[in-house]
Write a structure and sequence with these properties.
It holds the Pfam family PMT. By secondary structure, this protein is of the alpha+beta class. It contains 20 helices and 14 strands. Among the domains are: 218 residues, Trefoil (Acidic Fibroblast Growth Factor, subunit A), CATH 2.80.10; 184 residues, no CATH class. The longest helix has 33 residues.
Length: 728
C-alpha cells in the first residue's frame, strides 16, 4: 500500500533559458537606478497629481482616458506608503523624502521589462525561428525610447505591455484551436485575451485600436471556421458564444469594474467635481453634499430653490438676479427694456435663490401638506431677495439680438405688461405626471406667452460688459432653433419656504437647511455621467514646446527633453535608437512591396512559396503591419496636442516586423549558401550598429553620466533635435 514511498517524487519542468535571460536583461535595463533622478520628470508632474488625489480619496476627472492606468500608478504609491502630500507644480522639482520614488516608478518599469520576453514569445507563436524571436526581443531591449518611457511614472509602457499580452494570448489561443478546442488552456488564453484588451483600453483609449484589430482578426478566423464542413452547427454556435463571452462581455464587465473601483476609492469632494451634475456632486462626501444633504426631494409651490445650468461649460453657473437694471441703450445703440438684470452667475450667492410660486395664489410659502410641482405645470419664479418675477418679452437680448431678453419685471407704468408665466418641462421624466425633484430632475422652462426657452447663452464664450459685472448672459431662445443642454436646469439647493414676510424670508434664504432625505445615485448613473464627461470634456489644446506632428515620428525628427540636472549637463531625452527606427520603416516598406509583388505573381498563377508559408506571411502582416497602422494612422485625424511617445505602440509592432522580414529574406530570397552567409554577416554588422547607437545615447536615456558640452553637441545627429546645452 505504501509502495509509492520507495521511489522519490520527481518533478520535471521545461525552462526556456532564452526567456529567463531576456526577462533578467529586461529587468536590469528598466530597473537599474530607477530612483534617479529624484526629481519630477516631464509628465510625472501630470500623473503625480492624480496619484496624490487617490491617496487622499478625492474625486477627479481626467479627460485623457479611463482610470485603470492611474489606479496602477496609485497602487505603486500605496505600496510605497505615499501619503499624497507633494506639490506637483513643476518639472524638475526635487521630491521630498515622503515620496517613494522607486515604488511609484516600479510598475511602469516592470511592464516595460516584461515587453522584452513578450516580444520573443509572440514571434515563436507566429511560427518563426527562435533566432528571429530572440532578435525581436533584443531590439525591444535596446530601444532607447522604450527604456526611457518605462523608467518613469508614465503610462505608455503599461499600455504596450497589455497590448503585447493581448496579441500573445490570442496567438496562443488560435494555435490551440487546431487540436484542443474548449480545453482548459484554450479557455485560459481566450479569456486572457479579453482581459488584456480591457486593461489596454482601461489604461488609455489608444488600446482600443489594438482591441479592434484583434476583434477583426478573430472575426476573420471565425468566418473561415464557418466554411469548415467538419464542424457541426452546434459546435460553431459554441465557438461563437465563447468568443463573444471572452472578447466582448468580459472586457465590458472589466471596463465597468475599473470605474466601480475608481468611484469607490474617490468618495470625497474636490475641485474637479464642479463640472459634474448636482446629483453627482451631492453623492460625494463634503462639498455640495454638506449643503444639500437632507434637502426636500420634491419641489412644491412655495419652495425656495437655486437653479444650476446643466451644461456646466466652460464653468458651472446659477440663475441669478440683482437690483441693477439693463442700460437704457447698449454700446451699439440698441435699446433695452431697462428691466432688472437676470444673469448666470458662476459662484454661490444669496441672489441665486428663487421662489416657486403658484400663479393662482399670492402666498410664497409651502402649504401643509406641500403641493408638488409636476411636469407641465405653470409656475412663476420670484427672485428671493428683490421679490421681482422672472420675465421675458419681445425685446432683443443684450449680446444675442436674435434671442429674447430675460429680466425680472419692474412696473414702469408703461405699455409693457408683465409676461412671467413659465411651463415646467421635465426632460428626463419617466412619465408625464412626474414630480419635479431636487437635483435629479433636468428641467426646461418654456415661456407661456412666447414659447421661448430659458437658456444660458454665455456658454458660447460671451459675458456681459462691466454694467453686467462680466456675468454670463441668460436669454429666451426659440425652440425652433434646436435643443441644447444650456436650456436645461436642475434644482441644486432647496428648502421649503416658511416665512411670508420679506424680512424674515431674507434671513431664511441665508440659512442652511437640514431635512432627512437621501439622493444617492446608482453606480450606472454615475458611470454614465463620468464616462460622458471624459469623452466630451476637452481642455484647451495649447502648443507645447515639444509637441509634434504624426509625420515627424516616422523619421524621428523630434525629441522630448524630459529632465535637466539643475547644475550639470546631465539630462534625459525621449529619443529612439536611430538604426532601429530606420530599420523598422525599411522592414515595413519591404513587407508591403514584397506582398504586392507576390500578389501580382499569384494572380498570374506563379507561386513563390508554399501555401502554408504564404498564409504565415499574410497573417504576420495582419498583426504587425496592421498593428502599426491602427496605432499610427488615427493620429492624422485627431485634433489634439501630439507628442513623440504617442508613436511608441505603433513602433513596437514595427520592431516585431524587422526579424520577420529578415528571416523571410534569408529563407526565400537567399538561395545559395554564399548568399546566406553574406546575409548573416550583414545582420551581425547591422545588429552591432543597433547596440552601438544604444550605448551612444545611453547617457541621455538614463540621465547619467553627465556629458560635456562637446559630447552633447556630438549627440545632436539631427538639426531638429533639441539637445539642451547650458550657456557658458
Amino acid at each position: 500500500m505504501l509502495g509509492f514511498l520507495k521511489k522519490p517524487v520527481v518533478v520535471t519542468a521545461e525552462i526556456n533559458m532564452n526567456l529567463v535571460a531576456l526577462t533578467v536583461m529586461g529587468l536590469i535595463s528598466r530597473l537599474w537606478g530607477l530612483s534617479y533622478p529624484r526629481a519630477v520628470v516631464f509628465d510625472e508632474v501630470y500623473y503625480g497629481q492624480f496619484v496624490s488625489l487617490y491617496m487622499k480619496r478625492i474625486f477627479f476627472v481626467d479627460d485623457s482616458g479611463p482610470p485603470f492606468g492611474h489606479m496602477l500608478l496609485a497602487l505603486g504609491g500605496y505600496l510605497g506608503g505615499f501619503d499624497g502630500n507633494f506639490l506637483w507644480n513643476r518639472i524638475g522639482a526635487e521630491y521630498s523624502m515622503n515620496v517613494p520614488v522607486w515604488s511609484l516608478r516600479l510598475l511602469p518599469a516592470l511592464a516595460g521589462a516584461l515587453c522584452v520576453p513578450l516580444a520573443y514569445q509572440i514571434l515563436v507563436e507566429l511560427q518563426f525561428s527562435h533566432c528571429a524571436a530572440l532578435g525581436a526581443a533584443l531590439l525591444v531591449l535596446l530601444e532607447n525610447s522604450l527604456i526611457t518611457q518605462s523608467r518613469f511614472m508614465l503610462l505608455e509602457s503599461i499600455l504596450i505591455f497589455f497590448i503585447l499580452l493581448a496579441v500573445l494570448s490570442y496567438l496562443k489561443f488560435y494555435n490551440l484551436q487546431r487540436h484542443s478546442s474548449f480545453s482548459g488552456s484554450w479557455w485560459f488564453w481566450l479569456l486572457l485575451t479579453g482581459v488584456a484588451c480591457s486593461c489596454a483600453v482601461g489604461v488609455k483609449y489608444m488600446g482600443l485600436f489594438t482591441y479592434m484589430l484583434l476583434l477583426a482578426i478573430a472575426g476573420l478566423h471565425f468566418w473561415h471556421m464557418i466554411g469548415d464542413q467538419n464542424l457541426s452547427n452546434v459546435s460553431l454556435m459554441c465557438h461563437f458564444l465563447a468568443r463573444g463571452l471572452a472578447l466582448i462581455i468580459v472586457p465590458v464587465a472589466m471596463y465597468l469594474s475599473f470605474f466601480y473601483i475608481h468611484l469607490t476609492l474617490l468618495y470625497r469632494s474636490g475641485p474637479h467635481d464642479q463640472i459634474m451634475t448636482s446629483a453627482f456632486q451631492a453623492s460625494l462626501e463634503g462639498g455640495l453634499a454638506r449643503i444639500t444633504q437632507g434637502q426636500p426631494l420634491e419641489v412644491a409651490y412655495g419652495s425656495q430653490i437655486t437653479l444650476r445650468n446643466v451644461l456646466g461649460k466652460p464653468m458651472q453657473c446659477w440663475l441669478h438676479s440683482h437690483t441693477n437694471t439693463y442700460p437704457i441703450r447698449y454700446e451699439n445703440g440698441r435699446g433695452s427694456s431697462h428691466q432688472q438684470q437676470v444673469t448666470c452667475y458662476p459662484f454661490k450667492d444669496v441672489n441665486n435663490w428663487w421662489i416657486v410660486k403658484d400663479p393662482g395664489m399670492q402666498q410664497l410659502v409651502v402649504s401643509n401638506p406641500p403641493r408638488p410641482v409636476r411636469h407641465g405645470h405653470i409656475v412663476q419664479l420670484v427672485h428671493g431677495i428683490t421679490t421681482r418675477y422672472l420675465n421675458t418679452h419681445d425685446v432683443a437680448a443684450p449680446l444675442s439680438p436674435h434671442s429674447q431678453e430675460v429680466s425680472c419685471y419692474i412696473d414702469y407704468n408703461i405699455s409693457m405688461p408683465a409676461q412671467n408665466l413659465w411651463r415646467v418641462e421635465i426632460v428626463n421624466r419617466e412619465s408625464d405626471t412626474d414630480v419635479w425633484k431636487t437635483i435629479l430632475s433636468e428641467v426646461r422652462f418654456v415661456h407661456v406667452n412666447t414659447s421661448a426657452v430659458l437658456k444660458a447663452s454665455g456658454f458660447i464664450g460671451a459675458s456681459l460688459p462691466e454694467w453686467g459685472y462680466r456675468q454670463l448672459e441668460v436669454v429666451g431662445e426659440k425652440l425652433s432653433k434646436g435643443y441644447h443642454q444650456s436650456m436645461l436646469w436642475n434644482v441644486e439647493e432647496h428648502r421649503y419656504g416658511k416665512s411670508q414676510e420679506q424680512k424674515e424670508r431674507e434671513v431664511e434664504l441665508h440659512s442652511p437647511t437640514q431635512m432627512d432625505i437621501s439622493k444617492n445615485l446608482s453606480f450606472m448613473a454615475k458611470f454614465t455621467e463620468l464616462q460622458w464627461k471624459i469623452l466630451t470634456l476637452k481642455n484647451e489644446d495649447t502648443e507645447h514646446k515639444y509637441s509634434s506632428s504624426a509625420l515627424d515620428w516616422i523619421t524621428m525628427d523630434t525629441n522630448i527633453a524630459y529632465w535637466l540636472h539643475p547644475t550639470s549637463g546631465a539630462q534625459i531625452h525621449l529619443l529612439g535608437n536611430v538604426v532601429t527606427w530606420a530599420s523598422a520603416n525599411i522592414a515595413a516598406l519591404v513587407y508591403m512591396c514584397l506582398s504586392l509583388w507576390y500578389l501580382i505573381r499569384r494572380r498570374r498563377k506563379i507561386y513563390d512559396m508554399p501555401e502554408d508559408a504564404w498564409q504565415l506571411w499574410v497573417s504576420t502582416g495582419g498583426i504587425c503591419v496592421g498593428g502599426w497602422a491602427v496605432n499610427y494612422l488615427p493620429f492624422f485625424l485627431m485634433e489634439k496636442t501630439l507628442f513623440l511617445y504617442h508613436y511608441l505602440p505603433a513602433l513596437t509592432f514595427q520592431i516585431l516586423l524587422i526579424p520577420i522580414v529578415l528571416q523571410h529574406l534569408s529563407d526565400h530570397l537567399c538561395r545559395s549558401l554564399i548568399l546566406k552567409s553574406m546575409f548573416s554577416a550583414l545582420i551581425v554588422a547591422w545588429f552591432s550598429s543597433v547596440y552601438f547607437v544604444y550605448r551612444t545615447f545611453s547617457p541621455v536615456t538614463y540621465g547619467e553620466p553627465s556629458l560635456s558640452v562637446t559630447e552633447l553637441k556630438d549627440l545632436r545627429w539631427k538639426d531638429s533635435w533639441n539637445i539642451l546645452i547650458r550657456k557658458q
